[in-house]
Amino acid sequence: MSPGNAKTAPLEKEIADERVRLDLEEAVWCDEHLNGLMTSCLEDFPDDNDWNLPFTVSDRIIKAYIVFHKQYNTEWDPTAVTRQTPYDICAFITHKCGEKDKGYEGKRFLTAISTRAALSYWYRHCRPNESVTEWCCNKTTGVCHGLPTRAQAVSEFMIGLEKMKARSGEVSQSARALLREDMHRLNDYCMNATRMPEERRWGVVHYEVVTLEFSSVEIVPGERAYVEIRLKTHKSAQTGVLHTWRLWANDADPRLCPVRALIQIACLYGSHVPPRGPLFLRIGKFGDIMHDQPVVGATQL
User: C-alpha dihedral over 27, 33, 34, 38, to 10 degrees?
Assistant: First the structure.
């Protein structure tokens, strides 16, 4: 392994761990907003109510989960929690949200998020005295504690599924809205002058961007209070209507100031990047600007 790779490997593990941590934070948020999530995937779980019970959407998801596994193993116990349970969860979500050309149903990533939240609800019901935010399994005894939906295997699976959905063109939506604290933490990490350029590049571990171009940003001569952002038409809005927003400077909280953010981008690019084409460009591992690799759509580094 070269010295450069030796340095990058621990950093990549740190970033992978940070992705999992953020995923687990979002999973907890989803559990707390279960009802709101359920309405978004109503059509993905038809109410074939042959159990003669008043089913909510979360009940439908849980029933579908049980039926899915029972058809492959009649002895499968839906209330049992073992080291295999996280993989049972992943298998069911794959069945619902995996790629259609591979024989799966191809539902949205939001359906995967809702399914995970409903199964958290189910396993909390099965194990009311267990931790609702942690998961651990004793390798020697096989005894498991916590919610299986909190297992690292499930988090890594969900992160991979989100990437796959983004590559296939589905617009990925974060389950949890970014809070002010999230933006502050992101700003502090990426703008910390004590970090190496490649470390700052890796600071952005989970984000979404729209396909902005240099021409999308309108700086009004003499105007320092705001900049205008003009969005082009896209697949979901092909009427030819242009949308314009004003992003106002935020002197009260510079870390949330869009004007300062654009200035920082300009400083990062310098005079070597021509002001045309995609606004957001990838930054290489050593801080180099990759002119031919724009950041487009929802993505994860």
Answer: -110
Closest residue by Cα to residue 147 from 156, 137, 157: 137
Which tokens in the block code for residue 183?
Answer: 């933006």
Report the 3 state secondary structure along the chain.
CCHHHHHHHHHHHHHHHHHHHHHHHHHHHHHHCHHHHHHHHHHHCCCCCCCCCCCCHHHHHHHHHHHHHHCCCCCCCCCCCCCCHHHHHHHHHHHHHCCHHHCCCCCCHHHHHHHHHHHHHHHHHHCCCCCCCCEEECCCCCCEEECHHHCHHHHHHHHHHHHHHHHCCCCCCCCCCCCHHHHHHHHHHHCCCCCCHHHHHHCCCCEECCCCEHHHEECCCCCCCEEEEEECCECCECCCCCEEEEEECCCCCHHHCHHHHHHHHHHHHCCCCCCCCECCEEECCCCCEEEEEECCCEECC
Q: What is the reported pTM?
A: 0.60
| Other C-beta atoms lying within 10 Å of the C-beta of residue 116 | 28
How is the chain split into domains, by residue range? Answer: 3-167, 180-299
Our measurement of the distance from residue 77's CA atom to the centroid of its chain's CA atoms, rounded to an integer in Å, reads: 31
Q: How confident is the model at residue 44 (pLDDT cuts 50, 70, 90)?
A: confident
pLDDT at 32: 72
Half-sphere exposure of 223 (CA within 13 A, CB side): 13
Contact between 53 and 59 under an 8 Å Cβ cutoff? The reply is yes
Query: pLDDT tens digits for 79-109?
Result: 999 999 999 999 999 999 999 999 999 998 8
The tokens for 284 are 């290489």
Q: Mean pLDDT, to the nearest integer, of 44-55?
A: 59
